[in-house]
Structures
1.
Amino acid sequence: MRHVLRDACLALLAGGAVLIFSGCAHRPVVAPKVVAEVLPPADPNNWPALVTPGDADRLKRIDEAWRTALTEARPRNSAAITQEGALLDPAGALTRAAPSPGQYRCRVVTLGKGTDHRGPVFQAFKPQTCFVQAEEKLLVLMKATGSSLPGGRLWDDGDKRLIFLGAMADKPGAGAPAYGSNTQRDRAGVFERVGDFRWRLVTPWPAAGSTLEVMELVPEALPPPPVR
């Protein structure tokens, strides 16, 4: 039976719009609908049953993508890469990779020339808004603002990573298409925790423009410290 992702709402605000403040101005950012019809296997850990052959190959070669991207980007951007710390460290993944549902600031960094060899070898973009939502036994990750809008599920894959299988939405607020229905819009990556309240989604060889795309996620608001 086909499974359709429910309308994404931020659990923290019980179905309401979320206000993002910038100085004195604000505008509502609503968690987008992720209309991604897929056929999930009975075992929520069995993401290989869904992944397309092309994405499976890219994920298998993610270490190669890291090496190539950093080799291409480091000569002129060594200081910027070092400043990012664990975010751009291939060995930076920590245990307990799953994020909590909620609203996140997400910032994209791209590395390497990509398959077209025309893009800048290092770019860091301004933060945008992402959401994580619990959906049955899986988590859903959605980017709500910006020009690049991936949305899809996170699948368990060991103690240090989750696998992201999703697709690109056309515009903010629109639903992502079904994963596997259009390989030009599919996205597959590895989701990892790289610090306290800091995660990354690593996409090897995205559609165009870079060898590696790394999206940093940090909570929009940090939880209070534990009471001792």
Note: The longest strand covers residues 102-111.
2.
Amino acid sequence: MARMPHVEGFAGRSAAQSPKRAGKALREQVPRRSHAAFDHCDGRPGAVASVEESNRGRQPDLVPIRVGRMAASPFAFLRGSAGLMAYDLAHGTPSTGIGAHLCGDAHAGNFGLYGDARGGLVMDLNDFDETVVGPWEWDLKRLAASLVLAGREAGASEDDCLEAARDTVGSYRRTMRLLAGLPAADAWNAIADEELVSHSGARDLVGTLRKVSEKARRNTSARFAAKSTEPDEDGGRDCGGRRFVDAPPVLRRVGDFEAAQVAASLGPYLRTLPEDRHPLLGRYALHDVAFRVVGTGSVGTRSYVVLLLDHRGEPLVLQVKEARPSVLGPHLAAAGFPDPPPAGHEGRRVVLGQKRMQVVSDILLGWTTVDGRPFQVRQFRNRKGSVDPAALAAGQMDDYGRMTGALLARAHSHSADPRALAGYCGKNGELDEAVGAFAVAYADRTEADHEALVGAVRSGRLAAELGV
């Protein structure tokens, strides 16, 4: 038989190369029990100094909103401090050296429902501002720690919080083992959403997920436009139609020059989309642009909503959101990973990372540049819905942990070989126990960081606008 030539992007056929055996052998160098460790590094930046540094480059008038949101609870602080946790993971925890495309901010609030192209609902990770290739365990540890904090905020017992963290890791481990045993093509799309509850044993969440799904189906561009726009009686910017209504500080109209810059960026954005999407967007006309404040970690960055109307006056709203460099990047070298190559365009980094991790992505996901700054573009209110982990009953925390752990494993398996990760994670609960212990220790650390932030607000060092 003739030898098959090597083709870039395709693996060789060497039987001696076994990812599963390599993953299993790695346990000797980095024992699974070592993941319980969280060493406090002497050079660690203070929590308040870290928040101040992360506020650099943001719009100053919006920074108090960000601080106020982070001060709301320890779980909220964690949501806004992905860079500080990356420092802690890089300097205070072991690294297996196995890389995966990370979400970068895989806390329990960054999973949810969104619409696919046919009007169905998909459940997956849904926030990728920090996406980068790095240690797979960083995402898993952030998820586990966030569940402990969310559980504490919900009033769950310490045993329930620890169980949720352990179950998260156990579900990740078992899902990776399942994916490792499937044919490659089947593994890529495994665990369809209708199978997710039964696969993860999250039956106590069925009622909650049904309510979230019903709400998500109503969370559309049309509903947002109905609440946030008004008839443009005087012709305004674009000769009739509708325009956004000021609702400060969350939504505000912008001047003509700023609106024109955003509008001009949509041409380059179109070139980042597959050509088969162009006729669809070509059936809409641009009517207005407004500035809209976004979630905790992104408050203070530039983010716009763009109102498009079709020939019947039906709206499509796009979000044009600033993409800053990943806060994980500066800490990868300390974990033994090479510095990430220059992104070229941070919006492109976010979009490609999202597409590499999700089974189904927004069909209008792309990127552009506004006034020299990189942005990502996506549909706004595309039937999005999410479970608030801090509002779950104590008996639902472990179910939610198992469900998100399974989704994270599926996302990681698109870039990391599931056979290697399954070989390392193994069959027993040793990794579950270790990461569970880490999650509790890191939740304690986050509570102390949150208290420091609250103290800085009380002393006047940091201005905070609460409840926004």
Note: DSSP finds 17 helices and twelve strands in the chain.
3.
Amino acid sequence: MLSYTGTWNGEQISVMGTGMGIPSHALYVWELINFFGVKKLIRIGSIGSLQHDVKLYDLVIAQAVSTDSNFLAQYDMPGTFTPVGSFNLIRRAIDAAEKLGATVHVGSVVSSDIYYHANSEADGKWAKMGMLGIEMETLGLYATAMEAGADALGLFTVSDHILTGEETTVEERQHSFGQMVETALNTLIY
């Protein structure tokens, strides 16, 4: 997997791809934490909005994550386990996003194993429960980081709106994720 290390405002930051989906993402997160001693991880990427007030290009910060995945079964918990993001990183990300003038929403998201869902009612059910959006990796990040005692954050730019059918083009995504990237970088060096 490609990774790069550079500096942002004089601080060393590493950036790495993680593939698509919970298993791929969680594998890289586990190795970053356990082999390289990484203590702060931020996933950035796109998210599909599930709420009418969460618009294209808005930022979404995942406070907690729900899923249709079986990933959490490995922990054999005696009840329902809800992976959450690091409050410290969430607070820093909100401050960093607001300083950039971004429209930011904080709340629960869905990490799904299914991109093209055969059940046409699934997204509506998640929306009814207040999920801000749907993506495919954050559950693995949060659960893996929580188990290891690391700080983790899911930070997204809304690239499409599941309820209205609005979507950004490839070109728009290439040029409109700057606030998210800058928010992530500023969150890490805050």
Note: The chain has a mean pLDDT of 95.
4.
Amino acid sequence: MTELKKMTKAAQRKATMDKLIQIATREFAAKGYAAASTEHIVEQAGLTRGALYHHFKNKAGLFLAVFRTAQEEIGRRVESSANSTGDLWEQLTLGCRAFLEASSDPVLQQIVVIDGPAVLKWETVRQVDASLDDGSLSLLKECLAELVQSKTIIPVPVEAIAHLLSGAMDEAAVWIAQSKDPVTALEQAWESLNILLSSLKVDHQD
């Protein structure tokens, strides 16, 4: 019975946290971090401010949880797109394209691309990305390692090239967010990135 009570409390705690994250995601995406109201968030959730602070300590703590969830969503979209084909090279290109598209989604863009670096320390942003087993960076490393092993791409140091490509895509996402014509910017970013990726192919080096 005691174990059941513990499980029930844990499930209730998770449900409350998930609810707050879901509502906060909408609030942060619509208004940006600075203008988002924790009072409005708890009001919509039917909870007290004390409940929010109990689970997340403060507004920044809540945003970190929202940021992590948004990063997980980007990873899911990347993985879904990459898994639509069995061809390793296409997995890389489709995954990278999916990253740029997901980062251009208005909700994810506001939280991850615009507010994330401004609200969180750069070290925290990197730690979140690196800690996700199915995050975009982990998926990129995995795909690149398989491409090297299959000799589809030249034998580059996977860790190094993964961070270089990830940094390039992160910067492209910021540029797209700041562009007056994001649709065109996305296509130009993808065209340029595709050239960089193609330079890694073994047959390109011949």
Note: Residues 10 and 38 are 23 Å apart (CA to CA).
